[in-house]
Amino acid sequence: MANELFRICPDTGFKIDRNAEKLIKANAVVAIVFLAVGGLFGLLVALTRWPAVHLLPAEWFYLALTAHGADVLLFWIVFFEIAMLYFTSSVLLNCRLATPKLAWGAFWLMLLGAVIANVAVLQGESSVMFTSYVPMQAAPHFYLGLILFAVGALVAVFIFFGTLVTAREERTYQGSVPLVTFGAITAAIIAVFTLASGAIILVPTFLWSLGLIGDIDPVTYKIVWWAMGHSSQQINVSVHVAIWYAIAAMLLGAKPLSEKVSRFAFLMYIMFLQLASAHHLLVEPGISSEWKIFNTSYALYLAVLGSLIHGMSVPGAIEAAQRRRGFTSGMFEWLRKAPWGNPAFSGMFMSLVFFGFIGGISGVVLGTEQLNIIMHNTLYVPGHFHGTVVAGTTLAFMAITYLVVPLIFRRDIILPGLARWQPYLFGIGVAGISLFMMGAGTLGVSRRHWDMTFTDAAIGFEYPPAAFLMMGLNGIFAIMAAVGGLAFVVVIVGSVLFGTRRDDAYSKAHPVLPPAGAVAVSTYGNEEALKIPGTIMLVTIFFAAFVLYYFVNWKYLSEVWPLS
Amino acid sequence: MAIFPPENRVWWNEPLHRPEIIWITVAFLWGLVMFFTMIYWHFSGQQNLSNEAYRIFPEVYAERTEAMAEKYTVRTETNLDIPVVHPKPGTDVYMLARLWEWWPILELEKGQEYRLHLSSLDWQHGFSLQPTNINVQVHPGYEMVMTITPTQAGEFGVVCNEFCGIGHHTMVGKIIVVDK
Hints:
The complex is a heterodimer. In chain A, 70% of the residues lie in helices and 1% in strands. Chain A is mostly helical. Chain B has two domains: 14-44; 52-178, Cupredoxins -  blue copper proteins (Immunoglobulin-like). Chain B has two helices and twelve strands; from the N terminus they run αβαβββββββββββ. Chain B has helices spanning 18-44, 58-72; strands at 52-55, 73-77, 82-85, 92-98, 101-103, 105-109, 114-120, 125-130, 134-138, 142-148, 154-160, 172-178. In chain B, the strands form two sheets. A seven-stranded mixed β-sheet of chain B has the order 2-3-6-12-11-8-9. Chain B has a five-stranded mixed β-sheet with strand order 1-10-7-4-5, covered by helices on one side. The radius of gyration of chain B is 24 Å and the shape is elongated.
């Protein structure tokens, strides 16, 4: 019986439930399909916003933008996260997956919902943007698709919890859950909150679109919708931070500097991230400044504190592991000699750096009550969240896929040369997109806008020439990111279909993870032994950039017309 | 390793490392600085939203805006004859958003204070005053009031930066600031 249900992973020694394995595969494959579709829409959007190209007509532009948001921000990311939840519970805890049949039900429900929503968008009657702000109305099945998807995801989250309970009861692990699983638990708890918020607002909106409810208050809609929309981004943060720790552990044997500190940082996410709905309400009518300041800062920036802690713990863990391996010369030998040719590592480390420097800093600035006045609904906003959700989350998900394919799909990665370059193409492309959109946003250019030259407008307006330059550069980097994204899809789909099969004997001969060296460095010493000067330098540079950029924006604000 | 249960079962008793303690302290204090900077700006900064707002029926808002336009129109612009309204400094001025225009064109005097009212008659719109770069969300059924003091003379565009349907990119209004 046990032999049928489980196999022993020759690379890691984990006991792997075959049901969980199949579900991880299914969710990951569908996720990548949505990444490909949504990414293509994203490229069309960027090429339309490049004034010299201006590819799509207006109607198609708004349709593509709606599809882009739903397919990548929601479907790609959530399908992949469900795969990660099953991985971090069933695989890392050596436990059978709870209720595999129900898990298949959840999978099909999510897929059905995602397909219905896509059909609704492609029919052209639901170009309402991903946010679907009322009173603008989409076709009823647009909302229905999102609701079915959310219900499916919620069921999957509860299967994750069920698996944790099973593992505990059946004593499949000793002591506390691994840090990576702990991070996934925080993500799942936040997911329950966000999916419930989504149901609370989308169900009445669906009924309203059918004509069964008269009216939905637009401000209330935004408060509740963003309790889903923004808080769900914190699911991504929790998951991708867990992936950073996982990749650092698997490739380098890195151990968290301190379990206590890293877990505390995850806990900060659960306790405060839900307040982030306020980031979208800083310039809305009828909301007091007291409410805005408390909520937008996650109560004294305590959730930001969590991310700042991970920002030292993750590179610090890598540095400590590398130094133990003997890379001790100078401040940065450990980093120079890191496995930069391994796409799992390069993707993970770029994700860490870009998430912190681009997505993180800009997010805090954008979410500052008064600074939002000079940024709200400009391209600064998508600039920020492409830094978090694409350069951060998506790049981290791509990085771990390079380990998931050999370990779970049991196939070798094909085209290793292309795979080696893929994270750089995608990562640097996305970093460019983020920075140039932020630049255009700082110059006032509107987001979600088809024509920045206002050719058809009765009253014209001209943005400064620098803004046009920014949008051109944005288009060029979008092409680079798209090439990187395409390379990812080709390598991964190709590997899953045509990669060399890794049976047990082959796996022993060609290990994916570095052999026992990893175990040797994982035992780590006492306080005196911790020497991470390189990480301290990186964190200092980061902090200086953060403080400087923060106050530069206050300077910008002080030049705006007085308002009170 | 982070993918295995902690080797030390009582991991919560492990002492913290010095670099971690220092960084957590610095990061926490920086959070306090950012938190209190927002509060400080309410007392000493000049760019704050008042948060003065009212529930209002779109028809009523339209009437008030039309009444102001009737009283203070000085000329019309463009082939659509959009009125240019030059209200008295210090008074309440209205601008309405609807698919797909900002109405009317306002003419304000440099250095004077105005109580600017904003509301939408249909969907949500985004008031984006360029190039000074003031961006405020405009909702139907809510009337937002802010005291605004133009500090530069010239013509300023009011771009709609909340997606409002297929004509969204044609929705541009204007505020003209003149020297007294």
